[in-house]
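Purpose: get a first structural picture of the assembly so the mutagenesis plan has something to point at.
Setup: three entries, given in the order below. No constraints added.
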Amino acid sequence: MPELPEVETIARSLQPLLAGRRILSARLLWERTLAEPGSEEFGARISGQVIRSTGRRGKFLLLPLSRDTLLIHLRMSGDLLIEASEQPPATHHRLLLELDNGQRLALNDTRKFGRVWLVDDPQTVLGGLGPEPLESSLNAADFYQRLHALRRQLKPLLLDQNFLAGLGNIYTDEALHLARLHPLTAASLVDEPQAARLLQAIREVLEEGIRRNGASIDWVYRGGDFQNYFRVYQRTGQPCPVCGTPVQRILVGQRGTHFCPVCQPS
DNA sequence: CACGAGACCTGTTCGC
DNA sequence: TGCGAACAGGTCTCGT
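Result (C-alpha cells, whole complex):
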C-alpha cells in the first residue's frame, strides 16, 4: 500500500478538489470494500453530506463530512481518482462517490484489500494507532523508553501500526539503513543514542518521501519519484550507497527485508 | 508476549 | 513459448 508519504501526498492533492463539495450519491462495486456500515445504510447516510477537508492519520485518509467522517485505507493497491462522473467505471473501480460538480471520487483497487468506513466517531477506527512519527510530541526519550520495554525485532515492530502509525515496508527498510540498525535487532537492546538516531532516520525518510510526492512502483503509478532514491528497498544485490557492499534480502515476518550487512551489523 | 502461517485478492515477473 | 511459483507499498486472525 501507499505508506504515510503516499497517503499524505494524496490527501494534499485532493484537498482543493474535494473541500466544499457535496456528495450526491454512492455506488459500491465490490461489496467487501465497505467495512462499515452496510451498503444500504452507507448510500443513504452519505448522500447530501459536504466534504469539509481531506487529511491523514497513519495510513488512513480522513474526510470529515458535514455530519460523519469518511475513512479510507488503501492497503496494498488502492488509489483515489477524480474523474467525470458520466463515464463507465474502469475495471478495478470499487466505490464511486458522485459529487455536485459533475465529477466523482473513485476508489480504484486492483487487489480489493482497501477498506472504507463511514462513522460518527473516527476514534472507533483509529483508536488503537500509535503516535504520528512526524509530530514533535513524540520525542527521543519517549521513543527510547517504548523501544526498551519490548523484546520484538525492530522490523516487525516498526511495521506495527499500534507502535508507530504510518511506516510500511519501504520506509522501514530505508529508515533502518539510514539509522545503521539491523532489522532483526531486539528493540530492548537498542541504546539511547541508537533510538534517537532511529527516530531521526524515520523522520528523514518520511520527509524526503513527502518532498518527492511519494514513491511510484510496479503498475501503481502515483506520480511521485522517491523510488529513484531508494537506499536498499528492492535493491537486492546492488551496491549499498554508503559502502558499496551488495544489499541483502531476507524474509522477516513474511515481508521482504533489505539491508546492508556491513552498515547494519547484527 | 512474540512469532509464524494462512487468509484476503489480482497481476507481473522469474525460473525451469 | 508455456506454466507454475514467487512476489508485490497491508492487516487480520488463529495456533503454538
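DSSP finds seven helices and eleven strands in chain A.
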